[in-house]
Amino acid sequence: MAEVVVPLTVRDVVEDDLPSLTWYGNATALAAVTEAIRRAHRGEVDYLAVCTPSGLPVAVGGADYTKPPGAATIWQLAVQAELRSCGIGTVLINALEDRIRTRGLTWAELGIDNNRPRPRALYERLGYTVTGTEPGAWNEEAPDGTVTRYETTITLLRKQLT
Ligand SMILES: CC(C)(COP(=O)(O)OP(=O)(O)OC[C@H]1O[C@@H](n2cnc3c(N)ncnc32)[C@H](O)[C@@H]1OP(=O)(O)O)[C@@H](O)C(=O)NCCC(=O)NCCS
């Protein structure tokens, strides 16, 4: 097996990235990215991309400073499907934690859908511990445009940032 080491950089997501984010999802998903970029301009969130040397974003995710009080919520994490389980998600979470520290906050929180528990092992490996659960509900859009209401339980995890 051949191995190539590719240097990755982390930077803010910008609107010019949108054409390169087709892997992220459909128009509704990309609208959520656009909204996150606007919120970053307002200072409510940091919204970061992990990029290849050519500048292509292969992972995006954010830190939301509007909740919970005194901490930040890491949300909307996604790594391009073909590049998962290579450590890129870890790079992204570490960069988000650095941004949260820069804001002077000492806690990061994130939530896991109990029906999609695979990322939990990653978060626990990075030092996050379970603090509780809460109900979650949102609209999900199928590729044919059908929208259904999805309801689940969210497990909340927290990490103290030293
Ligand atoms: C969750 C997600 C963001 C994690 O990103 P990732 O790049 O796959 O994360 P990492 O590679 O850092 O860590 C994940 C796995 O790779 C392994 N890994 C970490 N570093 C590695 C490396 N250098 N080489 C090989 N494997 C590595 C980890 O042990 C972990 O194991 P797992 O696959 O059994 O969980 C990504 O899988 C994703 O986009 N999933 C779909 C959307 C989603 O679920 N978002 C999160 C909602 S809470």
Task: Please tag this protein with its features.
Aminopeptidase; alpha+beta; 23% helix; 162 residues; binds coenzyme A; single chain; 7 strands; seven-stranded mixed β-sheet
What would your notes on this structure say?
There is one protein chain. The protein has 162 residues and is an alpha+beta fold. The chain has one domain (9-160): Gcn5-related N-acetyltransferase (GNAT) (Aminopeptidase, 3-Layer(aba) Sandwich), CATH 3.40.630.30. The chain is 23% helix and 38% strand. It has three helices and seven strands. The protein has helices at 27-41, 88-102, 119-125, and strands at 9-12, 45-51, 57-64, 72-79, 107-113, 129-141, 147-160. It has a seven-stranded mixed β-sheet, with helices on both faces. A hairpin with a 7-residue loop joins strand 3 and strand 4 (72-79). The longest helix has 15 residues, at 27-41. It is globular, with a radius of gyration of 16 Å. The protein starts with 8 loop residues before the first strand and ends with a strand. The structure holds coenzyme A. Coenzyme A is lined by residues 77-79, 84-90, 112, 116, 118-119, 121-122.
Describe this structure in a few short sentences.
By secondary structure, this protein is of the alpha+beta class. The protein has helices at residues 27-41, 88-102, 119-125, and strands at 9-12, 45-51, 57-64, 72-79, 107-113, 129-141, 147-160.
Helix-strand layout with pairing:
Elements lengths: L8 E4 L14 H15 L3 E7 L5 E8 L7 E8 L8 H15 L4 E7 L5 H7 L3 E13 L5 E14 L2
Parallel strand pairs: 4-5
Antiparallel strand pairs: 1-2, 2-3, 3-4, 5-7, 6-7
Bound molecules: coenzyme A.
